[in-house]
Amino acid sequence: MLEAYKKKYYKNNFQYILVDNSGKIIETDDAIFHIDANIQLQSIHPFFEILNNLLQIENESFDFTCINLDFEDKLFVVDITIHSHKNNENLIILENLTNHYNNYQLTAQTRNESIINSQILELKNEYLLEKETFKNNFIANFSHQLRNPITASIIFSDLLINSDLSSEQKNYLDIIQSANKDLKSRIEDILDISKIESGKLILIEKDFNLKKLLKEINDGYKILAVKKGLEFNFNIDDALPEFIKGDQYRLKQIIGNLLNNAISFTDKGFINFNISLNYIRAKKASIRIEVCDTGCGIEKQNIDSIFERFTKIESETQIDNGNGLGLAIVKYLITEMNGSINVESEINKGSNFTCNLSFKLSYESHSINKVLLKKQLPSLEKKYHILLVEDSDLIQLTILKTLAATNNFYLNIISKGEELITNIINEDVDLILLANTIQGFSAMNLAASVRSLSKEYKKTPIIVLSTRAYKDDIKLFKQSGVNDVIAKPFDDKKLLDTIYKHLNKKRK
Amino acid sequence: MAISKKIVLIGHFGVGKTSLIRRFVENAFTEDYKVTIGVHISKKNIEIPEEETVSLIIWDLEGQDDIKNTRPSYLLGTNGFIYVFDLSRPVTFENLDSEVTYLKENFPNTPVKVVGNKMDLVNKVYLSDYNDVFKPLVDFYVSAKTGSRVELLFSKLAKELI
Ligand SMILES: Nc1nc2c(ncn2[C@@H]2O[C@H](COP(=O)(O)OP(=O)(O)OP(=O)(O)O)[C@@H](O)[C@H]2O)c(=O)[nH]1
Ligand SMILES: [Mg+2]
After folding, report:
1. pLDDT higher for A150 or A104?
2. Domain for residue A372, yes or no?
3. What DSSP string runs through A55-124?
4. Of A367, A392, A420, which marks where a domain is finished?
């Protein structure tokens, strides 16, 4: 019985071929394909050229798996065994495994394609990342380079305003000052973005007076709105906690950017600025910030892209009032603070930005803060000697003017790092102002070498004026003996405050 | 009768072994990728000036991450190797040095040409980034797509074989 079935279903997949030592066919059974006898097997397919070598070796067998043989326009995939004999009769056995190997081909195809695609994707990402890093570094460096000239420009125009000017000149100066301010804030925005994108932005958690901060923000932006003829309504929820813990500078930046955006895009009507308490839970206050305007609104398809960098929805008639980074920063900061932001907008009716942020409640004794906030000017019974080490003429002049205006200081300026040590040994120096790099010297090295002198120089305050003032940078400066870092661009108030602070400390 | 020489193309999958052979034998190219399984064998005669005609028997092997996994029977009687990698995909030349060393050690008298393919996809800056890897090893930068230096590769190798 079995034999009968076997006969019925048996498929002969094997072809047996006898060849002589030169490869000429003696006999074949044509089970897979027909070959004429008496021809060279080499002539039907180049695979068999291998016989020229193999048949020289007697009494051996060779196995070849998965050989693609295209033969008379048909493709066979076969395993081949070659038995070489002594008697000029060599046996070649072909096993037709075309179906089997075709299935395997499909699997290999899918596998290889998906591996290659994922590799290409990885490469693309790597490339994008490199480009991104390059861009961020470029932006950061470039913005740093802009700081020195802007600092000078700000300080000199501040000095100029107090001099004798005609009203026309005062008007011009107003314009210059507001352009300076604008430029400074744009550079800061760009730096923020590059900091955020390179992961260098760190939130600083501190106790602060929320209500006071909101009031300050309100005062500042109300003026701007009213100037533009807009109504400005500020609603603050009495239930809000007075003190919370968080990064007040960044919170101010979020709200400021939202208000700034609302004011820029609204030509008539009102701005509503509402702050309310969602709830207090687990010692945390959830706060809702709402900024509504009656401005030009945002088209539905643009809503998602308004938080992207360098995007700005703008009709042709609108004047450019910002560089489009404000909302991107808002979005990043809110994400960093684990908050959420939502926009509703109707074209030509207005927009409504709502964000929710949580802050830890603060239980500190807050009266101390008020005392600290008061500016402590030293009672200057004598004039102090300040040594400035700086090679930029602009900054030298800027600082000279600022300090001279107070009449509290003697200023000595050197522009070479190597003169620092002889100078502090030979002259009276109460405080050192150090540029972060001075032709071949770094502020860190210079500070370290001052600190390595004898004990009396250990206490002289060293303040670095730096275009780099990230947290990491400040840490490094402090490790090398620097007392404080003033970020460029700075204004005269910042400079004086810092100098007074350290002279005060030293006196104690 | 022409003398015949067996040339084997090996390297990772998808690097363009089949495409290089197609360019050389049929002067054609396709963007489609059909994975080779096992081995395809083709033949092309080339005339070498002032010498006899050489019949190249070209073995196009299934791509392999690791040369050691190649079926040994495929390599029997090989006269020359072309080791192909894909210039645009670093994984395919990650172990270039050890792969080529393996070949040279196991087939000491057999010439090996190391070939970076898909030259059309990369630029000079990219190549110079990888100069340390490529310079000591690579014999030809080619493109099956544009045909650049493909003919030269095979004829140089053929010349070395006679
Ligand atoms: N741009 C470009 N693409 C190429 C070149 N050579 C091959 N390709 C493409 O690369 C893919 C793989 O080419 P194949 O020749 O099949 O690669 P292989 O090395 O034979 O691959 P396996 O048979 O799997 O080992 C195909 O899509 C080809 O079109 C080249 O020089 N330039
Ligand atoms: Mg192939």
Report:
1. A104
2. no
3. TTS-SEEEEEEEEEEEETTEEEEEEEEEEE-SSS-EEEEEEE-HHHHHHHHHHHHHHHHHHHHHHHHHHH
4. A367
Residues with CB under 5 A from ligand 2 (ion): B 17-18, 36
Beta bridge pairs of residue B41: B59
In this model, does residue B118 exceed pLDDT 90? yes
Beta pairing, strands A431-435 & A384-389:
parallel
Residue A464, SS3?
strand
How many structural domains comprise chain A? 4
**What is the span of the domain harbouring residue A319?**
206-367
Smallest CA-to-CA distance from A491 within A430, A405, A370, A363 is with: A405
A240 and A210 Cβ atoms separated by less than 8 Å: yes
Measured between beta carbons, which residues in chain A are less than 8 angstroms from residue B35? 105, 108-109, 112-113
Distance CA A31, CA A28 (A): 8
Measured between beta carbons, the chain A residues lying within 8 angstroms of B62 are 66, 108
User: Do A245 and A387 lie in a common domain?
Assistant: no
Summary mean pLDDT of chain A? 85
pTM of the model as a whole: 0.57
Q: Are A326 and A381 in a shared domain?
A: no
Nearest to B14 among A53, A65, A112 (CB): A112
Residue A369 pLDDT > 50: no
pLDDT over 70 for what percent of chain A?
Answer: 93
What amino acid is encoded at B35 in this protein? V
The answer to ipTM > 0.90 is: yes
pLDDT of residue B11: 97
Give the helix ranges, DSSP H, for A265-418: 326-336, 367-373, 393-406
A154: exposed, middle or buried (Cβ count in 10 Å: 0-12, 13-18, 19+): buried
Q: What is the mean pLDDT of chain B?
A: 94
pLDDT of residue A310: 52
* CATH number, residue A345: 3.30.565.10
Whole-angstrom distance, CA of residue A330 vs CA of residue A256: 9
Structural domains of chain B, ranges and CATH numbers in brackets: 3-161 (3.40.50.300)
Question: Domain end: A198, A222, A252, which one?
Answer: A198
pLDDT single digits (tens) A311-367? 444 443 333 444 467 888 898 899 889 899 999 988 889 999 999 999 998 875 444
d(CA A192, CA A143): 10
CA angle centred on B121, ends B120 and B125, rounded to 5°: 100
Question: Is the pLDDT score of A78 beyond 70?
Answer: yes
CA-nearest of A416, A411, A379, A378 to A397 is A411
Which of B38, B92, B42, B18 minimizes the C-alpha distance to A105? B38
Q: Which residues pair with A460 in a beta bridge?
A: none
Q: Which of B51, B48, B67, B53 is nearest to B8 (CA)?
A: B67
Smallest Cα distance from A468 to chain B, Å: 31
The CATH number of whichever domain residue A119 belongs to comes to: 1.10.287.130
Provide residues with CB under 6 Å of ligand 1. Answer: A 112; B 13-19, 30-33, 35-36, 62-63, 117-118, 120-121, 143-145
Q: Is B29 helix (H, G, I), strand (E, B) or coil?
A: coil
Residue of A40, A67, A77 to mutate when probing chain B, most B C-beta within 10 A: A67
Neighbours of B73 (CB within 10 A): 16
Cross-chain Cβ contact A109/B35 below 8 Å: yes
Is A216 inside any structural domain?
yes
